Amino acid sequence: MSSNKKVSFIYLPVVIWTLIIIHLSTGPGVQIPFTWENIIGIDKLGHLFFYLVHTILLYWAFEKLGVFNSSQKRKWISFLLSAILGISLEVVQFSFYPNRYFEILDIIANIIGSYLGTRLFLIGNRLNRPEKQ
Question: pTM (2 decimals)?
Answer without folding.
Answer: 0.84
